[in-house]
Amino acid sequence: MFGDIARFLLNTIFTLFGAALLLRAWLFIARIAPDNPLMEAILQATNWLVLPLRRIIPASRSIDWTSLFATWLAAIIFIILMVAVSGGSLGSLLPAGFIIAILTMIKWALNLSIWLTLIMVLISWFNLRSLGAEILMKLTAPLLNPLRRIVPPLGGIDLSPLILLTIVEILLIIVTHITMSVTIFGL
Fold it and tell me: What pTM was computed for the model?
């Protein structure tokens, strides 16, 4: 029972922190102003890790490499802690642990896209003029616009979020199976 609770808490904490780091990189790519309340909150939650790393790994003009590296480090620590809590051998992680960390980052990114899409859909039902709606539309537009070109709105109903959520869920299943095979076979 203790192991289940510890794994749940680790998974929740690291998924939220990993999502915050990935969102930081995504907001950087989307050129969201640093004085935006969402950006300020993400910066405050992640600065303790990203700013010291920025001395070693600078961000480029288009990609925040520091935040992505910090996400990878968080994924490695998450995997180490999950193995330790499960009673597994940390030595077994060496060859596959780095790949599993990248796959964990991909899972966090896919989950983040689900959350952002769902929140954007909910906000769009109530208030499209809010600051949050504007940011969410800017963040999700690169994911939804290609789908909107393929499937136009039907009777004023935009099906692209539903299609995106379906695609992302399928990708999550694929990434989970790849992670399991890497974990089992130690690739």
Answer: 0.91
